[in-house]
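Hi all, long-time lurker, first post. I run a small reading group and we've been trying to get comfortable going from sequence to structure in the token notation. Rather than ask abstract questions, I figured I'd post a concrete chain and ask someone more experienced to write out its structure so we can walk through it together at our next meeting. Sequence below, copied exactly:
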Amino acid sequence: MTAFYLVLGLALLLGGAEFLVKGAAGLATRLGISPFLIGLTLVGFGTSSPELVASLQGAFQGYPGIAIGNVVGSNIANILLILGLSGLVYPLVCDRNALKRDGTMMLIAAAAMAAVCVYGFLSREAGLVFLAGLGLYLVYTYREDKKGNDGAGALHAAEAEFLTSGRTMGVVLELGMAAGGLVALVVGASLLVDAAVEIATRMGVSESVIGLTLVAVGTSLPELATSVLAAFRRKADIAIGNVIGSNIFNVLGIAGVVAVVKPISIPADIAAFDVWVMAAASILFMIFAWTGARIGRVESLLLLLGYGIYVMFLLR
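-- Answer (accepted) --
Happy to help. Here is the structure in token form:
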């Protein structure tokens, strides 16, 4: 039954995120909110919603390894696994304007998470700083797009168009999809966390390992589906933008919310190793993307190889 609950939890997370994003984006479009702002906020938060709910579940149930491991592991998987797979499908060409602004913010978020891990405790104060940083980033991005100082804003508008098909539905249907998606996320996260803890117990591994691998990859399914589909459709900028945005939201938004709601200790193994893998993966991505302005198949294979080595190290 554990495997059944695991699969059911993953399915509810994936479907819940899809329904939440489309329903909320449809309502936002109906209210006259710009595609750029929808892409920047609702799409970014929506695709990261499984990580948010699963990390909150882990924190409330007393499993810090799952709560923190999910955030760190998702960011590692986003870069090494998801961009690696997407780049194999089609080389990912990078918009340097978006990379300079959003990629830099991703590095800042990674550094902030590393600093908190060194301290050893995700406090409410740290969470408030994270959320304030996210708010300032959103305001700055919105103002820069309004002034037309760079072309990066078009990427977020394209994300909204890509994920919602640019269409609205009936208001009742949109409300139902958003509400139903939220319920599915909560139920799916609860099933996933319970199943993951049971699997960790049976395998004799720590909850941190399960949080960094099984839970992290499971909650990253929306990003995986979006990025690979974007690569198939030759929308490489969306594949990259989706991952960068998710990594920013995972640290500043999800870890921030978890800290404010339920401050928790950072597992020593994550602080000593995994958060530095996350930081190294972020830097490696920026080097690949900036030096050649693209992530080709060679770079993608190196990213996937790195993820394989990382997972084997954890499960050794």
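A couple of things your group might point at:
The mean pLDDT is 82.
Strands lie at 92-93, 121-122, 264-265, 294-295.
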